[in-house]
Amino acid sequence: MTRQEFRELAYNGLWKQNPGLAQLLGLCPLLAISTNMVNAVSLGLATILVMALSNLAVACLRNFIPYEIRIPVFILIIAALVTVVDLAFNAYFHSLYLVLGIFIPLIVTNCIVLARVEAYAAKNPALTSTVDAIMMGAGLLGVLAVLGALRELASSGTLLAGIEMLLPGASALQLFGDDYPGFLLATLPPGAFFTLGCLIAAYNAINQRRAARRLQPPRPATDGQATTNTPLTS
Q: Model pTM?
């Protein structure tokens, strides 16, 4: 894989085809688990792990999977990997596992995972398929992190609440003081929709502004800026 191919995969996953902002895939966990930043990032990391391993497995086995039964086989591979991740969370991060609950097993039904397996891993080599999965997952992770941070700040005035479930001894950041009354709407499903809508609006505005800049004709050089390359004469 060349550097240009890596840059294209990174740009597509992180921005151009971002699953949360451009493709609007996986909205159920995106909206339900993003009540705080720790929960959102944890689910995002689990999704990246499942996507990377499933893309790698399918890319390695794609020539041995009959076309007619490819979807059931893909789902079986994803389900097996999600089971491994679910058991690992239960073993090593049990308190976080209890908080995330059903949303780790629901990665099996996340359309982002199956979409990348079908659209990319089933047609490309293992390395590029793995990189594509990591970048797509990182794009979703970024949206989850921003969404969780904004909702947590608005609802309780804290950041990284529950970080002790990942790093024992760590504590959350209290940014607005102990007397902050909180904004209840941010913790409810409508708050998730409103916050995600603002992120999508900002994403579209940035893309439109960049497109408008590309369409603008180049400015003519002024007399003070014009330069000449005339040769020196003695």
A: 0.88
